[in-house]
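TASK: fixed-backbone design
INPUT:
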């Protein structure tokens, strides 16, 4: 998942003296039996749902094995945070945070996610989801409860399985995109790009197809070997100029 925040690099609490009542929960040795698998928590972030101050809850578990995955420790379903403690923490942030973003791993791998989203909404927060498009049916069921989705467009049909490390992944991703387009829920498509897995002409073809189908928000994120490191390649000025004309909202990160 291409979350902007990383559960490996949690920023300090912004105002602990004001928020004495409930500190951000710490990882626990073992979560209660039957609890969801939460592998990380970023108490506040303004980059995971652009323009919204959100807490990011990272779900552990992902069936894909993308070659560039920055959170491989979130691929296995191991929970490290007590969901009840997370809810208590969020209850203490009402009025201070706008939203909760579920990221991962792949958050739709968590079968309890709909109940989690309902519990968050009951506290008055808006809810966003980051997804790679692995579970179309689960996404369709959850969309009515979501306010925004960050959708990873991994690659074109030819390169999808090679990048995700699993067979037959393109059809699921396409079904998820179709569900998003039909839902009316706000969303951004984003592609983590390197010419190692997608040539620049192939990226432009992919972008043209997204624009033709009605995607309005698109971002290309340079692949970086590690967060904060130099990009492995830079898009040409010609490619950037075309991408900017294809979408009403385009970002190059
Ligand atoms: S979809 Fe890929 S990048 Fe995202 S968590 Fe799974 S393996 Fe990692």
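OUTPUT:
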């Amino acid at each position: 998942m291409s979350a902007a925040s990383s559960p490996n690099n949690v920023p300090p609490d912004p105002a602990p003296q004001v928020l004495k009542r409930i500190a951000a929960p710490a990882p626990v040795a073992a979560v209660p039996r039957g609890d969801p698998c939460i592998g990380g928590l970023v108490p506040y972030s303004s980059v995971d749902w652009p323009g919204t101050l959100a807490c990011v809850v990272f779900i552990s578990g992902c069936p894909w094995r993308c070659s560039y995955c920055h959170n491989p420790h979130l691929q296995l379903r191991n929970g490290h945070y007590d969901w009840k403690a997370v809810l208590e923490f969020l209850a203490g942030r009402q009025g201070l945070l706008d939203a909760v973003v579920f990221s991962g791993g792949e958050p739709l791998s968590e079968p309890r996610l709909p109940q989690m989203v309902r519990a968050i909404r009951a506290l008055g927060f808006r809810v966003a989801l980051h997804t790679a498009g692995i579970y179309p049916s689960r996404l369709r069921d959850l969309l009515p409860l979501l306010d925004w989705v960050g959708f990873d467009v991994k690659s074109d049909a030819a390169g999808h399985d090679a990048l995700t490390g699993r067979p037959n992944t393109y059809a699921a991703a396409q079904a998820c995109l179709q569900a998003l387009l039909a839902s009316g829920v706000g969303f951004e498509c984003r592609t983590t790009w390197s010419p190692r897995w997608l040539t620049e002409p192939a990226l432009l073809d992919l972008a043209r197809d997204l624009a033709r189908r009605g995607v309005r928000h698109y971002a290309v994120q340079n692949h970086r070997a590690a967060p904060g490191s130099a990009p492995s390649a830079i898009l040409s000025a010609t490619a950037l100029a075309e991408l900017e004309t294809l979408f009403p909202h385009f970002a190059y990160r």
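COMMENT: The helical segments are 83-91, 113-122, 136-142, 160-164, 170-183, 200-213, 237-246.
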